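Translate sequence into structure tokens.
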Amino acid sequence: MNLINHPKRYLLDISVAVVLVSMLSFGSVFIYHLNNDARDLQFNSALAMRGQQLSTELGCVACHTVDGSAGVGPTWVNMWGKTELLNRERTTVVTEDYFRESLQEPASKVVMGYPNVMSRYFLNEAEIGALIEYVKQLSPQTAGAASQ
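Result follows.
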């Protein structure tokens, strides 16, 4: 009996296709909602606004929230200057060096409690600087110093 052309196989294929399309649709709507939340924020810095734009274009907000809620990755709200506990029981302070390293070598310092799922980003210095300014602006204690 040939299972590939079996009528029940077609039903299984159609069922799997429906589930996958549903998951893709739901995921797209969810990410669109996250991106809208990120776009609602206004900053007095053109550089921070460019970082905000990049964070939605690159999909950063799919994992890093900008409202303090839990996400796949650490929230960017109040992140700047914070001491993070990393896997392997190390700590690091969120600085420009840490942020750059996280974009270029994300597996090198993974925050405890979060999966190591971030992919490497190949961004130019202007793009990295814009994302840094954006994250700084999301931390009120550093927002004044961020544009200096």
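Note: The helical segments are 7-39, 46-57, 96-104, 125-137, 140-146.
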